[in-house]
Structure formats: structure tokens, C-alpha cells
Amino acid sequence: MEYPDRFDVIVIGGGHAGTEAALASARMGCQTLLLTHNIETLGQMSCNPAIGGIGKSHLVKEIDALGGAMGLATDLGGIQFRVLNARKGPAVRATRAQADRVRYKAAIRSMLENQPNLTIFQQAAGDLIVDGDSVHGVVTETGIRFLSETVVLCTGTFLGGVIHIGLDRSRGGRAGDPPSNALAERLRALPFRVDRLKTGTPPRLDAKSVDFSVLEEQPGDSPTPVMSYLGSRDMHPRQVSCHIAHTNERTHEIIFANLDRSPMYSGVIEGVGPRYCPSIEDKVHRFADKASHQIFIEPEGLETHELYPNGISTSLPFDVQLEVVRSIKGLENAHITRPGYAIEYDFFDPRDLKHSLETKFIHNLFFAGQINGTTGYEEAGAQGLLAGLNAARRAKGLEAWWPRRDEAYLGVLVDDLITLGTKEPYRMFTSRAEYRLLLREDNADLRLTEAGRELGLVDDVRWTAFSVKREAIERESARLKASWVHPGTVSAAAIEEKTGKPLTREYSLLDLLKRPELGYADVAHLAGEPVNDDAVAEQVQIQAKYQGYIDRQQDEIDKLKRHEATPLPADLDYAQVEGLSHEIRQKLADARPDTLAQASRISGVTPAAVSILLIHLKKRR
Ligand code: FAD
């Protein structure tokens, strides 16, 4: 049957990408359908019950600044919050939260159910309605036809999913969920490049069987950090500790003795796994000289005894998993509640996508999340938001929007994916961003909220809160700039005592704040009232201290923008560009970058090659 209502946007898959995509599209006023296997699993964390971490919290805060759900759901579900790299510079500081799975999921579901313009429907999508080179809707497995202007595919690890536990294989999208085989076959028949990746998860443990007295306790930070710009500590549920355990030589012996029963080492799994989140068998194999690896024992929630032992993801057979777990101090009597497993799935080469995440071959069809070769909730959520907003813009007849690499980690993520593709599950790191000092987690709101407001993603509550904060930062910076400390005064003495150096001339408070020995609290009270808002004070301090570096990065960006504005024609025959090596010609022909700046980011494309391209373009004109 054909469903009577027609939608602007259909999102397939209610995971991290799909929920952000559906919410974004609906926030922008588009009639949106979220079609998912199972309403109970909306926003489910397939693996680690945690959000954020290095590089990833930057994405969460960007999603948040653009009005997304992940940051607020984390504040509502977070049971332990920490700031990682707290002693390092602000560019690499990252907030990480342990989340109560049930609370996190409930928060996401509640936001979805209360979102105007959003309809949720539970059923598997089995086919796409494609006419010529455009998509027009979706057909469910029972034959219901939903028509729409655009479709966003966010099917995660489900396409052709195969679960491995030891040498046993079964079909599944993740443990307990069916795979998406009909849709996988349909997509394989379309002209996209497809390949296989794999990822894995550890066995879960029963806390009642763990001896915590011999494990190191790791409490959260105090005062508790907050994830969303609209979040507050009052939103957090009760906070709990994690614990740290260690593998030992006996653990490693057990793993080595059973590698032939691991699907990865016996050649059963073909997909490439995440290098930065390796299985325990990978770790002991690759780092054979290491006698021990850390395991973070993380609670899965407040009303459950289940624990997530972060660091022993595995696809070894269950009997070996049990032996491995029980070889660890504190886990000698541990009961495994769910075995660990690996999953192999189809992903599509993201080089077949545009910056908007629309596919190059099928108009109005967008891909977001793990389907594009990424791993992680945050990477998925960020792509979902971008694909959802662009699907909505397409439905409204508007141009696509995406942030540049110097504006957001989301810009880095998408540009990396569509320009370079990926051979292994892609995850975000701060090292992937060239302009780390500009792209901090503390200023994602300053970078993106205004754009989000213009796009129709940011509601009045967020916009008002943001505007008040931005004005307070500007006012306070101006106040410090206009306040002077003169040598020989009481204020100067206070500064001299802190820095151990005499004040030889007059300085503004803003200039004094640039000194490494001085913080906002040391200078702000020397003239007038300091602000009573930690986020404002932090921002004033960071902007003052790093202004010199930030200005330098801005100069580089301005130079690069010229290349960004230089398009590379779609019909450019790289074989005809004189002076380029065969290898570079091949790389450019494969990637077909849209701009000179994009070409410059392809690994192996040297500055000299960029100059040659520039000369070639001038000759063509
Ligand atoms: P998912 O969260 O997988 O959501 C997909 C959604 O689509 C689901 O709701 C599903 O029901 C729905 N769906 C699928 N097909 C259809 C269909 N045909 N019709 C309707 N609905 C459909 N990430 C890490 O960062 N580190 C890890 O160590 C890690 N380990 C993992 C281990 C395992 C075993 C798994 C399964 C995942 C792991 N992940 C890990 C990945 C993390 O779960 C994903 O990156 C993230 O969930 C991707 O989000 P997504 O929205 O793309 O897909």
C-alpha cells in the first residue's frame, strides 16, 4: 500500500546518525519520517556507554551548538563526567561522560517524540524507490510505500551484518537485532563503491561477581563538567565511579594460545577493524612486548549491575573470553552477562558523496553515520545532523550548507571522508584538524550557533542563552581592555606578587591576562566586578591568552580561502596536466576534488603539485 501522507524527508535508521538527522530536518520545518527497525532501540548505544572524549566531545558540542540532541541527552543520562587533557592547552581538552544507557536512550526518545513535524514508524526499510537517477521514497519489508522528496540512510552496522564469536558466525545488525539484507542487496545494485569493515565489543560483566576492593577507583571530576551549552549540573543523575583493572602475562598467554580460534587471525573476517579501538587479541599481538593493558570497568547504568570492561573488545570464542576475564585481578569470579563479539558490515566509499552528504549518483539520497565508514556515536551524530539539514534544504529548494575545515570538526570530518575516503573505520582526533586552536570544544557555540540559527536549527531558548553569553564575553573583554594597572599601585603589587616580576609600565588587564602566570581570577577583580559566570570567564581568558596564535591561524586560513574559491572543473583531465607525477594524477583522478584546496589535502598532493594545477587552470581560461 501507499502511505497517504507524503514526506519532505525520510530518515532510515534510529541510531545516532538517524536521530540527529530526523530532529534537524523536523526542526527546520520539514515533514519528516523516521523509519526504524525498532522504536525501543532509538538512540541505543551499541557498544561503549560513553559519549565524548578527545576529538569526539568537540563534535558533540558542535552538534549541540547546531541545536542537536546528543549533548543534552548526555547531560540527562551522564553518570560520570571528566575533562580529559585538563592540564594541556584548551585546543585538546575534551569532556567525556559515562552514560546510563537506559537514561540516554529515554532522553533521545523523548526529544524525538516531542519534536513537531516528526513522525516515527517502526519497520525495516527493504527497498528504495528510485526513478532514473533520483530517489523518491522507501518501501518497507511488508510493502508499505512511503513517498518523499529526499531520503537519508543511517543504517549503521546493519547492512549485510555478520556477527562473529570465535569461529561461529550468524547474521545480525548488532547483538539481538536483525541485519538489513534486502536493503544491502538493493544498495549493492546501485553504482556505489562498497566494501566491508568490522568492529567489536567486549563481553559485559555482572558487578556482583567483581571484587572492587582490589581495583583502582576512578571518580569523576568535581565540580562536575557539563556537556551541552544548555546543560547544567542539576540535570545530571547520581554520579558514580569507574574502576581500573589490568591484563597480565597469564591473560596474554591465554590469548596467544587461542589466536587460531579468533575469526580475525584465522582469516574468517575480511573487514578491516578500527586501528584506534583494537580488540584485546589485536593489542597483545601488535604490542607483544607490553606485559599489561589497562581495562576501565565502566558501569552501564544506575539501575543495573552490568559493567562494560572497556579495553577487552574481542571476537574470541566464549570459553576463551571467560578464561581471559577470569585471569584478571579482581575478575577471578566474574560472570559474563553477554559475550563479546565482532561484527562485519557493508560500508560505502564516502568519496562517492558530496560535502552535503548527498550521494553523487542518486539525487536526493543522503548517507550518514557508520554506513560512510566511520565509527563512533559522535561521528555518526555529526554526519546525521549535516545530512538531515541538507536533505531538508534540498526539499525546500535551497542550496546545500556545510562548515569549512577551519569552522568545525564537522567540516574536517566530512572533508576528510569525501576527499580521502577511508580504508579503516574512521574516528575523529584533534590531530586531524589543521586549525586546532580555533576549533576548541569551549567555543563550538561561538563558531556555529549563529549559522545554526540562520539554518533554522536553533530555537529561541538556545539563541537567547547564546546571545546573552556572547554579549557578556564581549563586554567583559572590553572592560578588561579599558582597565589599567599603573606601577606603584596596590593592584600592581598584587600582580608583582603573582608573577614575581616588577611592573615597569602601565598595562591593561587584558594584556596582563596574556601572561602565563595569571588567570582571569587574578586580574578581573583589580578594577570593578568580575563576571559571575565560569563559561564567560573561561572564554575571556582563552581568547586573551591565545589571541596571537589564533590571529596567525586566521592568516593561514585567509590564504587558503583563495584556493577554496578556486574550483577544479568536473571534466578536468589530470592526464593532460603537464608536470604532475603519474601517482598524483591517479590520486586526483580517483578523488576528483571540487576545489584546489580540497586537492591540496589529498595525501601525496604536494604544494608543488598545487602550483602546477593552478598554472594549468590559468592556461585553460
Ligand atoms: P547505529 O547506531 O548502528 O544505528 C543504526 C540504526 O538503523 C538502528 O536503529 C537500526 O535498527 C536501524 N536500521 C538499520 N537498518 C534498517 C532498515 N533497513 N530499516 C529501518 N531501520 C534500520 N564505536 C566506537 O566508537 N568504538 C567502538 O569500539 C565501537 N564498537 C562497536 C561494536 C559493535 C559490536 C557495534 C555494533 C558498534 C560499535 N561501534 C563502536 C560503533 C557505534 O555503535 C557506531 O559508530 C554508531 O552507533 C553508529 O551510529 P549509526 O547511527 O550510524 O548506526
Task: Write structural notes for this entry.
- Helices cover 36% and strands 18% of the residues.
- With 621 residues, the chain is of the alpha+beta class.
- Among the domains are: 139 residues, Elongation Factor Tu (Ef-tu), domain 3, CATH 2.40.30.260; 82 residues, tRNA uridine 5-carboxymethylaminomethyl modification enzyme MnmG/GidA (Arc Repressor Mutant, subunit A, Orthogonal Bundle); 58 residues, GidA associated domain, C-terminal subdomain (DNA polymerase, domain 1).
- The strands form 5 sheets. Strands 1, 2, 6, 7, 8, 9 and 20 form a 7-stranded mixed sheet that branches. Strands 14-15-16-17-13-18 form a 6-stranded antiparallel sheet, with no helix packed on it. Strands 11-10-19-12 form a 4-stranded antiparallel sheet, with no helix packed on it.
- β1, α1 and β2 form a beta-alpha-beta unit.
- α2 packs parallel to α11.
